[in-house]
Design brief:
mainly alpha, hpI Integrase, Chain A, three-stranded antiparallel sheet, 52% helix
């Protein structure tokens, strides 16, 4: 734990949190003596919390509390994935108390998931359990994060499946439901994720300036950041007509529990009816949006911004589509 004076003259305190990560907090003080007083009070508070007894709670009660809290702040899909992780963990460990779960328990559980399911399932569990035990630490249900030090499973890089322009047109010709066809067209021309689309309101659509604003009011995006997506000429007339016929503030009438699953199933039925690659799914429309942009010569950084990726590395999976750039580069020698 130490203090550093920033350029604005304010001292910041650096410390290690319960999960072992370095954190920083502003002391809001510009003199060393006041900053050290803040540090002393902070240390006393940390020590006080460390001496507090953890609140005993079993895995089932904790699961219910965590999921209730998640339903207020996370998407339906994310909550569903958390439920899956909890179900498998509880099946493996039993209804144990949270503060009795050790690092070794988590390692054995992940090894079990790796052998009984897949590396993808184990990888998702690592992500979920880190979030779960971070919450447990904050609520004083445990003094340690048993996931600390567990490395993420590496998976072989896999190229995303996307529609060729020809296959995309073939798919549209097969879809006989106007609303669903509009949903597919908007997805392919904006790169929006499924729940970002289904939760859209007309108040988020600015047809005058050709812009869609994901403002976090209705649906919290994956990156948890406000994002603006342009409306291109392919879907501008579609949105105009949809707005003209709109009876509510919702762009789409698809609502209810498990709607994401139902949309995915309906989409798959159209893909099979069109006799296209059965590996294509609704999220492939987002991959297609990115792939078409890269193939059209759009800078990968702009593509990343349009997709709302928090890290450019996520967008790099599309960079293989610009092989002409690589060929041009080596021919300069």
């Amino acid at each position: 734990m130490f203090l550093i004076k920033r350029r604005n003259g304010i001292y910041h305190l650096y410390y290690k949190s319960k999960d072992g990560k370095r954190r920083t907090i502003s002391t809001k003080k510009n003199t060393k003596s006041d900053a050290y007083k803040f540090l002393t009070n902070f240390e006393n508070e940390i020590e006080k919390r460390a001496n507090e007894q953890t609140t005993t709670i079993n895995l089932e009660r904790f699961r219910l509390e965590f999921l209730r809290n998640s339903e207020r702040t996370k998407s339906e899909k994310t909550v569903r994935v958390y439920k899956t992780t909890f179900n498998y963990l509880q099946k493996y460990l039993g209804n144990v108390n949270i503060d009795t779960i050790t690092n070794n328990d988590i390692k054995k559980y992940l090894d079990h998931r790796l052998t009984s399911s897949s590396v993808f399932a184990a990888r998702k569990d690592v992500i979920n359990l880190n979030g779960v035990f971070k919450y447990a630490l904050e609520e004083n249900y445990t003094k340690i994060n048993p996931c600390k030090g567990i490395k993420q499973f590496k998976i072989a890089e896999k190229q995303p499946v996307y529609f060729s322009k020809q296959d995309y047109e073939k798919l549209l010709s097969i879809i006989d439901n106007v609303e669903f066809r509009n949903l597919v067209m908007i997805a392919a021309n904006t790169g929006l994720r499924q729940m970002e689309l289904l939760s859209l309101k007309w108040t988020q659509i600015d047809l005058q300036h050709k812009n869609i604003l994901l403002d976090q009011r209705v649906h919290i995006t994956k990156s948890k950041k406000i994002r603006s997506v342009p409306i291109n000429n392919n879907i501008y007339p579609v949105l105009l007509e949809m707005q003209r016929l709109a009876a509510t503030d919702n762009l789409f009438s698809y609502t209810g529990r498990n709607i994401s699953v139902l949309i995915s199933q309906k989409f798959k039925s159209y893909v099979l009816k069109a006799e296209l690659n059965p590996s294509l799914h609704f999220h492939s429309l987002r991959h297609s949006f990115a792939s078409w942009l890269v193939q059209g010569g759009v800078n990968i950084f702009l593509v990343s911004k349009l997709l709302g990726h928090a890290d450019i590395k996520t967008t790099q999976i599309y960079s293989h589509l610009r092989q002409d750039d690589l060929l041009t580069s080596v021919n300069c020698i």
